[in-house]
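Practice problem. Given the sequence and the SMILES for magnesium ion, write out the predicted structure.
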Amino acid sequence: MAALIEGRGLVKRYGGVQALAGVDISLRAGETTGLVGESGSGKSTLARVLLGLEGPDSGSLSFDGRPYDGLGAKGRAEFRRRVQIVFQDSAGALDPRMSVGLSVEEGLANLGLPRAERERRSREAFDEVGLPASRRDDYPHQFSGGQRHRIAIARAIVMRPDYLVLDECTASLDALVQSQIVGLLTNLGERLGLGYLFVSHDLNLIAQVSRRIAVMRSGRIVEEDEAERVIRSPRSNYAMELFDSMDCRP
Ligand SMILES: Nc1ncnc2c1ncn2[C@@H]1O[C@H](COP(=O)(O)OP(=O)(O)OP(=O)(O)O)[C@@H](O)[C@H]1O
Ligand SMILES: [Mg+2]
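Answer key:
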């Protein structure tokens, strides 16, 4: 299967820091890749570059087999719809003055969909994430952290994406709520045929959700393979040390 998003030789510098030092990665539709690595290894930078939120200093990016630079306005709009993002603080980033229903519908309004259609799809999205559609008129402060998280996920899936990038998205939640959200994501992934790039420090979590695992260190991917293989017998010393320090090998 051709890659949905592919990066080749990605380099990104911030002043003297080489956040990405030549990364090759392929993300396939319908498949979940877990991205692990110590703090500062470049995971979030890679996620932002793959999302087209920041251009690389060198290297190339393609979407559905087409060079990202040649997509044009229409192609980029399609990319932005098909690839959605849920960041760590996205639940906190909901506009406090906007009802959560309007927040969820915002992207649809930008697409110019009529009100009735927006409402129908937002009800559907609330349903998908396990929140009653009747709560669409409420405001973010009226929800728990876990519920706000579900709203952030609703905001993403209402666009009917193929792929979600989740950067440490459950890091702020307690263990029980975290496992509920992971369960929800797994379920949605299967039902909607979604693939994820799941960025996390937590190898247990990564192991639970990922078909493939990529291990990052100092701006490079030092290992990338089937999740089971990487966890059972990491080839790189670094991955071995990382997994030991995380103390979570089965
Ligand atoms: N906007 C920026 N300006 C300057 N330096 C940056 C910027 N973004 C990232 N960096 C640097 O790039 C390197 C990689 O950062 P990045 O945030 O990608 O790491 P990470 O793997 O996501 O870490 P964490 O696990 O802590 O989230 C770090 O040295 C960081 O300080
Ligand atoms: Mg990060």
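Check your answer against the key. The chain has one domain: 3-246.
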